Amino acid sequence: MNSMYFTEEHQMFRESLKDFLQKEVVPHIEKWEKTGTVERFIWKKFGDMGFFGLAYPEAYGGLNLDLFYTVIFLEELQKINSGGFAANMWAHAYLAMTHVNKEGSHEIKEKYLAPSISGDKIGCLCITEPFGGSDVAGMRTTAVKKGDTYIINGSKTFITNGVYSDYLVVAAKTDPDAGHRGMSIFIVDRETPGISATKLDKLGWRASDTAEIAFDNVVVPANQLMGEEGKGFPYIMQHFALERLIMGINAHARAEYALDYAKQYMSERTAFGKTIDQFQALRHRYAELYSEMEVCREFNYSVAYRLDKGEYVVKQATMSKLKSTKMADEVINECLQFLGGYGYMEEYPMARLLRDSRLGPIGGGTSEILREILAKMILDDKNYKPAT
């Protein structure tokens, strides 16, 4: 492993996390993949181990560690071959909780962040809307001020942890006439009247509960507004940098897992009197795929290093997701081919890995949107600035 970024303490953490996942998670994966429900007990175990608090302040029960502990957390989650389980964990810890930590008041952090770190509460982030997709600025969900409350109406879709979470971080228009400048962020309890969730049936990520959520005259106290009214869009854009980097890291990690599995298989599978890793066509293609994975991995580590130092890396994180997710799909598709007919069988890991990986170029901003964002930054000198 790259000692330029990882210390001995990092490596000890990686080994303890691997052991934990093998003992506590892997035995349940097949059941969760079938039921589409990750049982509550594992969230508490993650909390007890401190895994949800890696990047968060000690004041709320976190560990306040550097970003490479998060990198390790993400990488190892990808290597137990359940993209859905991994998504449940990181969508809670780095999508919902990031907004609570950055924009929430002290009271909100005590009520939501602390129990999120301990594994007693699960969060979800509600931004994407039906037919809205990556067009965040075109959001239609509204939050109308009424006395000391807001009334939320609208719907969200493709929300990870959208069925079983305890609270929702919701983006809504507080000033529909102000475009993206009229957007705000709220935190809403699941049991609030008027919230309903419908579980979605997906190609992959089958262990995760992905939902379409409706808000019908949902009354939210005004003190559940997070940050400043009207600042929702820059908050979202700022945190997208982390989300995109997370998805880039996830991509290189699952590609590495696929390559490791294919390498082992190819060293054991014989054809025409020799193992198939001795055939030039296969070994050269494998070497090329491994090179592409390692280029993405090294780039992602460098972006993580810069983000950890406080740099605003929205351009580089966007590049990370764009290139790494494309690479992962290509690598996993080719690794499935290396396994031949067995690659197509569900009892081998490649079939699920291929399904789960396919969301990479879609979620968190489609590759098409990312190309346009990069074009604006590179060709038009567009300068996206942090909100806080």
UniProtKB/TrEMBL annotation:
Family: Belongs to the acyl-CoA dehydrogenase family.
Species name: Xanthomarina gelatinilytica
BP-aspect Gene Ontology terms: branched-chain amino acid catabolic process; butyrate catabolic process; fatty acid beta-oxidation using acyl-CoA dehydrogenase
Acyl-CoA dehydrogenase/oxidase C-terminal domain sequence ranges: 230-378
Example GO molecular function: flavin adenine dinucleotide binding
This protein's UniProt keywords: Branched-chain amino acid catabolism, FAD, Flavoprotein, Oxidoreductase
Protein name per UniProt: Acyl-CoA dehydrogenase
Stretches assigned to the Acyl-CoA dehydrogenase/oxidase N-terminal domain: 7-120
Cofactors required: FAD
Pathway entry: Amino-acid degradation; L-valine degradation
All copies of domain Acyl-CoA oxidase/dehydrogenase middle, residue ranges: 124-218
